[in-house]
Amino acid sequence: MVAAGSAGTSWSRAYIRPEALHNATRRAVVVLDIGNLYVHQKHAQTLVDAGAFAGATKFVGCSFQFGDPDAANGAINAMALNYAGDTVRDPATRNLQVQEPADVRIVLNSDRYWADNDPLNGWGLDYTQDTDGDGAGDPCNERALDVKGTDDDAPLLFGFLPMVIDPKRKARVEIRQIKEQSGMLPWACPTSSPRPSSRSSSTRTST
């Protein structure tokens, strides 16, 4: 509708049907809900990445000759859970999921993701990923740490999606022996208690 205004000006009025406005709003909130799920998936990947990299720092104790594999496995688990965002398995975890942090479920070296009705402490899931078939799936034996994370019932912003989604992400680190390398320089480690060096000199006189 176009109407004449004062002083030769004009303006237009647009009318939108309530049904059209309602449909446009629903489409917008669905897009926002989908975007929020992508945010949860991205953050879940960050959590499992952090857990895998943190746990990898404790593989130094896995040597059967010079280390303690049982203690190393415990240290690997503790370090991984300390960064992976599972508030049930480690209430002091350093990283948290957005919106509902308590819904993250982490399993270590598991052959599947956590699912509804599974124990929250990893019982029956941890160490079930036995890739070499020797019956042991712990990190030291597998020479790997596999971190799987599930964001249980990720929340929606508006709730217009007719489904409940559990974003799942995983990260894995492997320890492998180097067979050949080049271009590496030897490492030098400073001693904790250096000793002063002394030099004796003798003076030779001639007559």
Protein model, in words:
The chain is of the alpha+beta class. It has one domain. It is 29% helix and 13% strand. Strands 3-4-5 form a three-stranded antiparallel beta sheet. The chain is elongated. The mean pLDDT is 84.
List descriptors.
207 residues, alpha+beta, two-stranded antiparallel sheet, 5 strands
Short summary:
The chain has a 3-stranded antiparallel sheet. It has a two-stranded antiparallel ribbon with strand order 1-2. 29% of the residues lie in helices and 13% in strands. It is built from 3 helices and 5 strands.
Spatial strand arrangement across the major sheet:
3-4-5
N-end to C-end Cα span: 125 Å
The whole-angstrom Rg is 30 Å
Basic shape: elongated
**Percent in helix:** 25-40%
Return the string of H and E elements: EEHHEHEE
Major sheet characteristics: 3 strands, antiparallel
Strand content: 5-15%
Low-confidence stretches: none
Give me the count of strands. 5
How many domains in all? Answer: 1
Number of helices: 3
User: Could you tell me the mean pLDDT?
Assistant: 84
Oligomeric state:
single chain
